[in-house]
Predict the 3D structure of the following.
Amino acid sequence: MIPYGSSGRHLGAVQVMTAECADLRSFFRRYVMLREAYRGRLYSVQTEGFTLVELMIVVSILTLLMAILLPSLKSARDQAVQVVCAARLQQWGLAFGCYAAENNGVLPHCDGLDRQDYDPDHPDDHPANMKAWDLADWCGWVDVLPPLIAHKPWRHHPLSQFPGESTFYHCPRGRLIDGGHYDYGPETYGYFSYSMNSCLELDPNAWRPPGGVDYPMPSFLDTGRIVGAARVILLFEQLLDPRKGYDGQHTYGSAGKHCGSYPKAFSARHPRYRSGLGGNVLYCDNHVEWHRSLWKPEWDSDLKVPPRGDPNWYPYPVVEKSAK
C-alpha cells in the first residue's frame, strides 16, 4: 500500500511523467513525419518527369514550328537548285562566247555540222566516216564547247556512261522518268536536259530543208548579225518526261533526245513562290531568266515551231522571199 501521506506526491509524479511521455511521443511522431516528408521530397525531386499535359504542349509547339519552318526550308532548297541550274547555263554561255571569239564571231550549231576541224585522234568523227543521221546529234555544241572549259566532247563518252544531272551538262533536276516510254534508250545513248534554240540552225552552212528553199537563207549564226541579243534565246531547259509531250499535247518518246529543239520542248521544273513551276532560259547576252512557258498565247497551237520573225527565236531580220 502507498502511505497515505505520500499518495499525492506519487500521483503528481505520475501525471508529470505521463505528460512528458505524451510530449515525447508527439515529438517522435513529428520527427518521423518530418523525416518521411524530407525523404519524399528528395525522391520526388530525383524522379520528377513531365505530365501528359506538359508533353502535349511541347509536341504541339514543335509541330507548329515545323509547319512554319518546313515550307521556308523547301522554298530555300528549290531556290538553291534553280540558282545552280542558272549558273550552269551561264557557264555554257561563257563557252559559247569563247567559241565565237575563236571562230570569227560565229556560234556553234545546235545539232548540225560544226565549223571546227575534226580531231585527228578520232577519225570516226570525220563527217565522211559518219552516217548521215549521226551528223546532227554528234557534231553540235555539246561536242565543240566542252573542251573550251576543260571537259571532253559529249561524243567521246562511252555508251551508258554519259554525264548525268550532277554535272554541268544538265540541270540538277534533269532526271529521266522511271518507267518512261522513251524511243531512243537514254540510259545507253545519253540525253539532254538543256536544249539549244533550233531556230538558230536555219543557216546555209548548217541545214537546208529537203528540196531547198526559194529565198535566201541568212547566216544568222554570225553573232555580228544578231538583232537584240538580250532577247534572243540561246539555251533553255528541255522536257524529259515523255508523258507530257509538247506542252502536254501528246506523248513524246523523244523527250531529251536532241540537243536542239523548239519552244514546245521547254520544261518547267523549278517552283517559284506564288508563281508555279517554270524553267531557266539563257539568252545570247549570257543572262538567265525564269519563265513559266516559252509558247506564246497568240501563237496557233498547231504550230510546231515559232512563227518566222519572232524576235525571241530568230535573231536576224526577216528575209523576204525572192520572186519566182
Notes: The two ends are 162 Å apart (CA to CA).
